[in-house]
Specification:
The complex is a heterodimer of chains A (about 325) and B (about 475). Chain A has about 325 residues and is an alpha/beta fold. In chain A, about 35% of the residues lie in helices and about 30% in strands. The radius of gyration of chain B is 34 Å and the shape is globular. Classes of the chains: A alpha/beta (about 325), B mainly alpha (about 475).
Chain lengths: ~325, ~475
């Protein structure tokens, strides 16, 4: 499959510090690719490199098969870009501003701008500098979507939007994907990426530390299980669950002949279900996996993920 | 659909208010000065008064030529107030063209669209040029209109030449500003460059005319190049006009080249570092609690897997622990003085209060709610996000983001669990070495004096006022 974006050893050094230390990733055409990472990880810098707003110190970037620097305006017309933070100070209305960018970036289907504005609930006739953050964000989205570009680079697209508009945005992303367009978006929060993205890359300290498909993350993610059962002692229940692979953090509470047990499950759930089959359950909750947790594990550096040292807990006594 | 010169059109038409404003200003200046000529410049009385002034002063103000209509127009309108207004307008537009637009963060959006950097500079320079020419044309027309009624007797061709030079001179300041903006992307430099060309040009001219010793200054003054021979009276020095246009064009070319060649970043808004308490100045006592390398953190620090209720209970126990185990230590730290207070707090929420010999932890509401929120503070830019709203007091933010103390990423990664304000006059640091290892040697806490104590290898490694929350959660 063709690649909409690929970078190799992308490095960017500013005067005082290096922001990207060799970022490698590729985005397949027609996919939705999410980058998540903490602030200062280099998400925005990477995106700016794709648009030749920032020029990398070294490394190779290909966007829609071209070097952004050589691709020039023709290439950027094929890209829709949403800035992480939109500053609009001029005394112009949203409509005028969009007409300007329409003149710059080429054909927009008639009625497209109004259609998008209506979907997002944006008033185009207000002066841009008077818009709230959310409304500015909507304006930014409209300008990134209006000319139906092949590639959309969206820096924290849902920031400042209310949940309903976020849903609308997710729908817009899916529609674009159905038309075969590529979407590259960033976020702090996995939950908004996981709704739309096929693949998630985790960027930390200027490096891609993991690229995972969302379904892959789901498999590796930790679920929580909680059940109540009759006719078993707390000890036996603990032992039973403890023997199931991937189960941890078992906590059992015994009260009046029944026990309530909660635990975490990592990986496949089949063994757990088999173990639970032997019990006389009165209640069972198996939660949806929290991908955020799976990703946070990747966020945190290796020493942080070592299980709790009991010494520390003892010291607290 | 593509429109020709879209950037030029936007720069030109979107600034119509400002163009109109300056036009009104120039018109006012024209109507203010010129009709007065018959009663001021031409009158013998006025001439006597000017003769009475020191020669240096009349030269400085160009009033030595004020007795004729053209000289009067040259000295008052073209040489003084009109020059001032035009220069300010031109520098303002030149500054906004690239530098101002970059600094306000709007250039990034434009450059992300189908334009080249050079195109941006050139089209905006064109818009600057056209607006300046428009203003000069207006002045030309107005002076022509007033020529008869104010008995100025200016020859039209001289007036035309003077107006061209008038535009040229203003243009030079504007392009200097534009060029500085393209090179630096900062509005301050830009205004400085533009003003320098305008003001220094004027000053060099004024000083240079005073005596032969400093006459060389005239050669450095664009003002003198343009107005040295009093063009309203004597006709334009077209060679000078050519030179001035040439320099302006070169400045624009340089700007285009600079923008094209800038590797660093064009269009990226500079980060402003300011705010209350930034760098620990307003609230000097700040410490951070961080687990040391290798220390166990059972669960990722953002999580609150047991629900807030249980975390709350856990912290209550923690507080009990602290009360029992740490009382002597805390009192010791407090210097053992009755009445000394140690308040450990996160934002406005007290974590622990040590009041003399009595140790209280009466405010347990901080727990569970505050910690996860504080750990979610990493927004260096302070923007609330949907799930990560930094709800802690605003003055905590700069610490979470300040480079020298706690990096945002560290908070994210759980290396820093909380940022703790230590108020009061008590040095919580200065713990002796034995106690350092006694409990959680993995935390450090700075106090009284703030910044210095957070340097590498600081001796202020003390026992913590608080445990990392995840330890507690990991040990049921």
């Amino acid at each position: 499959m063709a690649q909409a974006i690929s970078t190799r050893s992308l490095t960017k050094k500013f005067v005082r510090r290096e922001v990207l230390h060799g970022v490698d990733f590729s985005v397949e055409a027609g996919s939705v690719f999410g980058v998540i990472g903490p602030n200062g990880a280099g998400k925005t810098t990477t995106m700016r490199c794709l648009l030749d707003i920032i020029r990398p110190t070294s490394g190779e970037v290909r966007v829609l098969g071209k070097d952004p620097r050589a691709g020039g305006p023709e290439l950027r017309r094929r890209i829709g870009y949403l800035l992480g933070e939109l500053f609009l100070e001029g005394r112009v209305t949203g409509r005028t501003l969009l007409a300007h960018y329409q003149a710059v970036s080429g054909p927009v289907a008639p009625g497209r701008i109004d259609g998008l504005a209506e979907r997002l609930g944006l008033d185009l006739d207000r002066h841009t500098r008077k818009l709230s953050k959310g409304n500015k964000q909507k304006l930014g989205l409209v300008q990134a979507f209006m000319h139906d570009p092949e590639l959309r680079v969206l820096d924290e697209p849902t920031s400042g939007l209310d949940p309903l508009v976020q849903q609308e945005f997710h729908a817009m992303v899916r529609e674009a994907q159905h038309r075969g367009q590529t979407i590259f978006l960033s976020s702090h929060v996995l939950s908004e990426v996981q709704q739309t993205a096929d693949t998630v890359a985790i960027l930390r300290d200027g490096r891609i530390i993991a690229v995972e498909s969302v379904s892959g993350l789901r498999e590796g993610a930790v679920r929580r299980v909680r059940f109540t059962a009759n006719g078993i002692t707390a000890h036996d229940a603990g032992a039973l669950l403890g023997a199931v692979p991937g189960v941890g953090h078992v906590e059992v509470l015994e009260s009046g002949g029944s026990i309530t047990l909660s635990a975490t499950v990592e990986g496949a759930i089949q063994p757990l279900v088999r173990a639970l089959g032997t019990l006389e359950l009165t209640d069972l909750v198996l939660e949806e996996p929290d991908l955020e947790e799976a990703v946070l594990k990747m966020y945190s550096s290796p020493e942080d993920t070592v299980p709790a040292v009991s010494g520390a807990a003892e010291a607290a006594r | 659909m593509s429109t020709t010169l879209p950037l030029f059109r936007r720069a030109f038409f979107d600034s119509w208010r400002s163009t109109l404003g300056w036009a009104a200003g120039l018109a006012a200046a024209t109507f203010l000065y010129l009709p007065l000529y018959p009663s001021i410049g031409g009158s013998a009385q006025m001439q006597d008064m000017i003769d009475a002034l020191p020669a240096e002063m009349t030269k400085e103000l160009n009033y030595d030529q004020i007795a004729t209509g053209p000289g009067y127009t040259q000295a008052t309108l073209y040489g003084l107030l009109g020059f001032l207004l035009m220069t300010i307008a031109s520098v303002g537009w030149g500054a906004a063209a690239v530098g101002g637009d970059e600094e306000s963060g709007q250039l990034e959006l434009t450059l992300a669209h189908g334009v080249t950097r050079v195109q941006v500079v050139l089209e905006r320079a064109l818009s600057l040029f056209l607006r300046v020419v428009l203003l000069a044309a207006l002045v030309f027309v107005l002076v022509r209109l007033l020529n008869d009624s104010a008995q100025l007797a200016i020859r039209p061709e001289n007036l035309f030449g003077a107006s061209v030079l008038f535009a040229t001179l203003a243009q030079l300041s504007g392009t200097a500003a534009l060029c500085a903006g393209a090179m630096s992307g900062r509005r301050t430099y830009v205004l400085a460059a533009g003003a320098a060309v305008g003001v220094l040009g004027y000053v060099f001219n004024a000083v240079g005319r005073q005596s032969e010793d400093v006459e060389w200054l005239l050669n450095l003054s664009p003002y003198h190049w343009a107005y040295g021979n009093s063009p309203v009276a004597n006709g334009a020095d077209w060679a000078a006009a050519g030179w001035l246009w040439g320099i302006s064009a070169a400045l624009v070319a340089l700007a285009a080249f600079a923008v094209q060649a800038r590797r660093r970043h064009v269009a990226v808004r500079p980060r402003r570092r300011s705010g209350p308490g930034f760098r620990g100045e307003a609230v000097p006592n700040v410490g951070s609690l961080r687990p040391a390398a290798g220390q166990g953190v059972g669960l990722p620090p953002f999580m609150d897997p047991l629900g807030q209720h249980q975390v709350r209970r856990g912290l209550a126990e923690l507080a009990q622990d602290l009360l029992l185990a740490d009382r002597p230590a805390l009192v010791d730290q407090a210097g053992g003085d009755v009445g000394t207070r140690v308040n450990l707090s996160v934002g406005h929420h007290a974590l622990l209060k040590v009041d003399g010999l009595g140790v209280q932890a009466d405010d347990l509401c901080f727990d569970g709610v505050l910690l996860p929120q504080l750990q979610r503070l990493p927004e260096g830019d302070g923007l609330p996000r949907r799930h990560r709203a930094p709800a802690a007091p605003a003055h905590c933010l700069p610490y979470a983001a300040a480079d020298h103390q706690v990096e945002a990423a560290q908070v994210h990664e759980g290396k820093v669990h909380a940022v703790v304000d230590v108020h009061g006059d008590v040095d919580v640091g200065g713990q002796d070495a034995q106690r350092q290892g006694r409990r959680l040697p993995d935390c450090q806490c700075g106090a009284a004096g703030g910044r210095e104590q957070h340097q590498e290898g600081s001796q202020k490694q003390v026992h913590p006022p608080m445990l990392p929350i995840s330890n507690l959660l990991a040990s049921p």
